[in-house]
Amino acid sequence: MLGSKMMGLFDDDVPRKSETAEISVGQDLSRLSEEELSERIEALTEEINRTQKELEQRSTIRNAADAFFQK
User: Fold this and answer.
1) pLDDT by residue (tens digit) across 9-41?
2) By C-alpha distance, which of 1, 4, 37 is closest to 21?
3) Which of 10, 19, 30, 32 could form a disulfide with 36, with the two C-beta atoms 3.0–4.6 Å apart?
4) What does the alpha-carbon distance between residue 20 and residue 39 come to, in Å, rounded to a whole number?
5) Where are the domains of the chain?
6) DSSP secondary structure string, 1-50?
7) The pLDDT of residue 22
8) 0.90 exceeded by the pTM?
9) Would you state the pLDDT for residue 16?
10) Which residues contact 32 (CB under 8 A, 6 or more apart)?
């Protein structure tokens, strides 16, 4: 039991990877591990897909508005 309490004292010393780390275009990639680079690609791909979906939704709305007002 004492061992588990002692481990808690040192948990703050262990650097933790941020799950919500900001990704910026042009960021220095030389310090990232292969795993971090793969995670970055996955996050960027998800963001591209999210952005494309939003663009498609806006295009659909605009086309509907254009059709409505051209009548």
Assistant:
1) 666 665 555 555 688 899 999 999 999 999 999
2) 37
3) 32
4) 12
5) 32-71
6) -HHHHHHHHHGGGS----TT----TT---TT--HHHHHHHHHHHHHHHHH
7) 84
8) no
9) 56
10) 40
For the four alpha carbons of 29, 31, 33 and 39, in that order, the dihedral sign comes to negative
Cβ atoms of 23 and 43 closer than 8 Å? yes
Q: How many CB atoms lie within 10 A of CB 32?
A: 13
Task: Give residue 30's identity as a one-letter amino acid code.
Answer: S
Is the predicted pLDDT of residue 7 greater than 80, yes or no? no
Total number of residues shown for the chain = 71
Query: What is the residue type of 57?
Result: Q
